[in-house]
Design brief:
Strand content of chain A: 5-15%
Largest interface: A-B, 96 and 97 residues
Number of strands of chain A: 12
Oligomer: homodimer
Number of helices of chain A: 13
Largest sheet of chain A: 8 strands, mixed
Distance between the termini of chain A: 54 Å
Structural class of chain A: alpha/beta
Order of helices and strands of chain A: HHHEHEHEEEHEHEEHHHHEEHEEH
């Protein structure tokens, strides 16, 4: 205890110290509960690091981005200073409405869109808008995305993990009292399966029957490689249940911190008010730059280009996983989209051994166990290919094969 | 009621509809509770609009900003994509630590700073970190800043307004159960008085005695015109009670959405975790641009330049208020800082008449009543001079005098 009242933390017995206890509770909250697809690399050599959740920006047309950014700043400087609309810049909302209509068949207009600081803020705002602390049950996928779960938990929800199988979220096992269902239908995070048409219909039925809201996280929905995307849940939503959440962290880059939510009409005003109260609005020059980037077709072009790049990386990875040394240990989850691939293992012990072997060979691969949410879930490895090129993929998988051969 | 289950809102009697009620509560939350210094102009002609809370950006060296922005983007593009530190870019935190040490005598290092999306996010994160819903009492100034109040209320606090007089917050009237005190010591918002040395000491004593936290909103603390600034509360804080909150919305521009909080050490980790959960981190190129702008001395130069500009505007305004036509109605609150000036009136009726008269003359002035927080508070007018030049000030005040003469 320091002199001069510095006993906030150590002295909890005094009657006036209720706030001290509060502080302690908060300060003791577990770190690292949030990590998931944004987790830092753990392998020493990032050149062979199959980390998750990061895109490749080397093919982005940065010269165009800089030019549009400079132009946005010039136009911005000519306007009087002031606060902007909490909902987002109209031109960006227009661009997002076009983008999701075209890329994801979600028909909406610019007035239906709320611009957020990445998908994470969308989850946070939705949670704070819908969750009644201590009274709202939120169902999440297990394995699933920890930061979304954390947003609902922080808002005071009772979070219930629900199993995922080859068809995605097992809708039949949703607790009837769930009032919010968080789901990644286009490319389940982290397993990578797609929510089947049957399950999609069942989930919409569940929302109708139980008057539940659905938070549809479409984090990498732009990156499908077989040209036959399922409709978004938002597209088949007949009950105003679906909050469609997207991000530019995968299609462009995470440092941009821009994403969006297309909520049901009844929730829009409340979400905008939450956004205003959370941080007024997003960075204006960044919004204006992105709006021009979309409007001039650069985003669509970049996504098309990266679709080919990621498809090729995924093929390389799948081919490597089919070699006998690896096929003995791992079975890839079927799928044709996204920026990462999951492969199941027979046991947790196998996974731990594989991760350790890979690390010894300077290859970073990740265990599914980090995403279990406490539920029994399959064991396996995750290979992100957003931030690793063809050569490094081949080199990394070859090193992995070599250490396995020596076992 | 639309077909297909679209009865979310209208059908609250059914047993399964608890979430519907929740939705309705939320959707019904009053709009416009947040506005305050960020409020939109109400006069028709913005050339004579004394709106609050917006700085003048016409004197900003935009060419330098664009150059640093382009350079930041070039460096950013060379790095692999990924998520950045939730606490903020190290170089920016370094720059902020220098800035507040130099401009506000708050001694801190870069590790003590959390970068936020403007001051509003700092209030929101602090509220969500410290407030136990339904159990924490937060004292705010009345009149005061509505968006800060809204952040605490949204986190579930019981917000108690406390009177302000010529010496600032009346510390003697703080409810003993207050565990958080939100205060604007450098330039009370909206009255413009400075928290006296006596009250500062008393407030620190209160925090020690009651183990309360103090949220020190230093929104325009850079702009003092008499060269004798009081120490920040943070500077004289001996009990690790003070969360020092600053913003670049006044010293640079609101669209940047960058601010910061320097919390007591015991709260730092919890705040960073909240930030990570709220939106991962702030826009990276914007942070890097600002870091370079500070590091190269441009921020300090801009603040020095604008201090002269705003001081001259304030003098013009004060001179106009001393003319007989206006002195009959209004008595300016003493003060030598900030981007706005308050002038008290004898009655609410006088204020309403003055606002209406001004509006008829195409002059935008604002009533103190918007900031009362339900408490009895003096009536008066607010004149922001951040976004209005010398000529428009003179023209506006002349118009105001003219209509008053005709009464």
């Amino acid at each position: 205890a320091r002199p001069g009242g510095g006993s906030f933390v150590s002295d909890v017995a005094r009657p006036a110290s209720r706030s001290v206890a509060a502080r302690r509770d908060v300060a003791r909250e577990p770190r690292g509960a949030i990590g998931g697809r944004a987790s830092a690399p753990t392998a020493r050599d990032p050149a062979r690091d199959f980390r998750l959740g990061v895109p490749d920006v080397s093919a982005l047309d940065w010269a165009v981005w800089r030019r549009l950014s400079a132009r946005a700043l010039r136009a911005f400087a000519r306007q009087p200073a002031g606060y902007a609309a909490a909902q987002g810049q109209p031109a960006l909302r227009e661009g997002i409405a076009h983008h999701v209509s075209f890329a994801r068949a979600v028909s909406c207009g610019s007035d239906d869109v709320l611009v957020t600081a990445g998908a994470q803020q969308a989850f946070d705002l939705v949670a704070r808008t819908l969750v009644k602390p201590g009274r709202t049950v939120v169902a999440v996928e297990a394995p699933g995305y920890p930061p979304a779960r954390a947003a609902f938990a922080a808002a005071g929800a009772t979070v219930v993990p629900v199993r995922v199988d080859a068809e995605g979220l097992v809708v039949d096992e949703l607790p009837p009292q769930a009032r919010i269902v968080y789901v990644t239908p286009a490319h389940q995070f982290p397993l990578g399966c797609v929510l089947s048409a049957r399950r999609r219909a069942a989930l919409i039925d569940f929302a109708c029957a139980h008057r539940a809201a659905i938070v549809e996280d479409d984090y990498d929905g732009e990156f499908r490689f077989d040209g036959r995307p399922h409709d978004a849940l938002k597209t088949i939503d007949r009950s105003e249940a679906v909050f469609f959440v997207g991000t530019f962290s995968k299609s462009l880059f995470p440092g941009l911190r821009l994403g969006y939510v297309v909520p049901p009409p009844w929730a829009l005003e409340a979400l905008i008010e939450r956004k205003r109260q959370a941080d007024s609005h997003c960075n204006v020059p960044a919004q204006d730059t992105l709006a021009a980037f979309i409007e001039q077709g650069h985003l669509a072009r970049h996504v098309r280009r990266m679709r080919r790049v990621y498809a090729s990386r995924r093929s390389l990875l799948q081919a490597a996983l089919q070699t006998p040394e690896l096929a003995r240990w791992l079975e890839p989850v079927a799928g044709t989209s996204g920026l990462h691939l999951a492969a199941l293992a027979r046991s947790r012990r196998d996974v731990d051994a594989l991760v350790a072997d890979a690390r010894r060979a300077s290859v970073g691969v990740y265990s599914l166990d980090e995403y279990r949410h406490g539920l029994r879930a399959p064991h396996g490895l995750l290979f992100g290919y957003g931030a690793i090129g063809d050569a490094a993929i081949e080199d990394g998988m070859q090193r992995l094969r070599r250490v396995l051969r020596q076992r």
